[in-house]
Amino acid sequence: MTKALVDQGFKKTVMDHGQQVGIEVEVAVRNPADVGSIPQPKRWIVEQTNGILMLHRRLVRDYEHRTASAASRVYWAISDRMSRILTSTSTPAWRGA
Questions:
Q1: Is the dihedral of CA 60, 66, 43, 9 positive or negative?
Q2: Is residue 43 within 8 Å of 33, Cβ to Cβ?
Q3: Which of 4, 36, 39, 71 sits most deeply, having the most CB atoms within 10 A of its CB?
């Protein structure tokens, strides 16, 4: 990882840590003139990915004891999503038609 995008609330601690490990940290700044809930330019991509991951039951809670096991579940969920996109299958087979 060479660059990270962070929210305004975590900018100090994350920027300090990123500087220590050699990662460029960019703070997503909200336009003060905006009123209400407006998606930030890159943040919606992260939110969409988290939403896709939450469709898989094992990723809703932190069941895994090892980080390698949790990472493998994330790869499995993203691979499932990519295969459904490539095959034009919108609904997982286990949910029925």
A1: positive
A2: no
A3: 4
